[in-house]
Amino acid sequence: MPVTKIIGASTVLAAGLLLADGDQVRLALAIGTAACVTGWALRDLLVPVRLTAGPDGITVVAGFAGRRRLGWGQIEAITVDRRGHRGVRTELLEIDAGESLHLLGRGDLGTDPEEVAAALRALRSRDEP
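Above: the chain sequence. Below: its structure as tokens.
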């Protein structure tokens, strides 16, 4: 996926350079868009693991490359949000920690969010007395 994002950023930049015709606004928009998509790709390369879990709790990525540790006691709910729009179905793993909500999609997890939710619930139930 990062390679696809970098190719997309390069395409946007090339199109902006070719189609700007001296228009500084078009060129600036193309450069800004390419920079944002490149940053998104770099995030995927620098922080590929978005979620880890263990007997004490989970660690999720917060922000661009930060990490946040949540103990099982801090997590209020682990659910999967399913939505359909114009024939496209999306699923997001939702980890509700009261003051924060962490959303992770299939691309972030590398697998089906429902499988991850089931695994997290099983790990969490081992921790409870």
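The chain has two domains: 2-46, 51-127.
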